[in-house]
C-alpha cells in the first residue's frame, strides 16, 4: 500500500523535492475562483486539490492561501526550464536594496539582513530559524526595515494592526515571515496577546505547535497551530528575556544621511518583484546544497542556543560566496561579537528579570499563603531561558536570600498528601525591590 504523507503546501521539502504554493485565479460560470496550485522543484505544477494530492501520495491538514508573490512571467520562465539564478547575484541584489534605504552602524548588518531574508525561502530545511530584533529610538529606521523585509522575504506580512487570530493562521497556513512593529505591545495582559506571545516564544523551532479550541459546525474542538516561521521584531525597548534569547539583535540609530532618511520605499517598484522572481526558483533548485551544508557545518566556539540560531545564517553565508572564505569569516566574527555582547547584557538583566518573572508568576498563578514549590519557581524561570536556562535550586535559594525576598531557607509543606519543598513569596516585597531599581 502506498504511503500517504502530510504536505505543508506553502513551503515543504520532502524526499529530495521542494514544494511551494502559488495563488491562481480561474474564471468560471460562478465568477472568479481562487484555485491554488503547487509548484515543485521537478518543474511540475498541479492543483491544490485532494484528488491531485492523493495521486502524488500526499494529504493536507492546512490549506495555504498566500498573496501573489511570484509573478506569472516568473512562474512560466521556471516551468519552461530556464536556468536557476546565481545565489550570489540574488544575495547582492537584496543587499543593494537594504543599502539603498538604510544607514546601519555596521556594514556587516546589511549582509546579515540580506542572508536572513534570503534564508526565509529555505527555513523549513532548518530545525531552528533565528528571530531578528531591531532595537532603537524613534526615527532610527526600524519600520522602514520591516517594510523592506516584508517585500523581500517569503510570504512577508506586516503585522502592525493584525489580530492574534489572523497572525496565528498566516503562520500556520502560509508559513509567513512576520514583520512585527512596536513589539513592546506584546507585554499586554490581553488573553489574545498572551496566546500570540506563546506562539512567538515557541515559533523559532520546528515541530512546535500551540493549541486552542475552535468551533466547527456548532461543536468546540481542539486544534493545533504550528508556530514555526521567520519573525523580525522592532521595538524601542528590549524584548522579553524569552524572545530575546531567540533573537539576533541589530541596534538601530537615526541616520545623519538626509538622502537615505528621506528616501521612501515604493512598494510597487518592479525591483522587488524581480528579486522575488529570482528567490522562488532559487528555493526550488538550491535547497539540496543548502541542506547538506547546514547538516555538515560545525563550530567549536559557538555553542548551545547560539549555535542553533546562527547555524542557518552561517550555512547560507558559506554557500553565497563558495570560493571566498573571507565572507563566511566576516559573518562568523559578527556572530561572535553579538554573542559576547548578549552575554554581558544578560549579566546585567539577571536581577530585574528575576524580580519581574517572580511578579508575573504570582499574578498568573496566585497561591494560598503565597507558597510556591521550588520546582514550580524553577520551571517558570526556565521559560525565560535567555537568562535562566541553567537555573537550579542553589541559584534560586541564593538570589531569594540576596534580594531579601524570603526570611530563611526553603521549608516543606504538605499539599494533597505530598510533602513539597518551597518558599513563601511576598508580592509586596517583590514590588518594593522593583521600585528600588526603577521598575514599577
Model description:
- This protein folds into three domains: 5-65, no CATH class; 87-323, Rossmann fold (3-Layer(aba) Sandwich); 347-436, Arc Repressor Mutant, subunit A, CATH 1.10.10.
- α11 packs antiparallel against α12 (325-364).
- The chain is built from 16 helices and 18 strands.
- The mean pLDDT is 89.
- By secondary structure, the protein is α/β, with parallel strands linked by helices.
- β17 and β18 form a beta hairpin.
Shape summary:
globular
**Ends distance:** 63 Å
Number of strands: 18
Strand content: 15-25%
Give the strand order of the largest sheet, numbering strands 1, 2, ... along the chain: 10-11-14-9-15
Q: Structural class, judged by helices and strands?
A: alpha/beta
Q: Count helical runs.
A: 16
> What is the arithmetic mean of pLDDT?
89
CATH level-3 fold name of the largest domain: Rossmann fold
Q: What's the structural domain tally?
A: 3
Q: Residue ranges: pLDDT <50 for 5 or more in a row?
A: none
> What's the story with the biggest beta sheet?
5 strands, parallel
Q: Architecture of the largest domain in CATH?
A: 3-Layer(aba) Sandwich
Radius of gyration: 24 Å
Broad CATH class of the largest domain: Alpha Beta
**Helix content, binned percent:** 40-55%
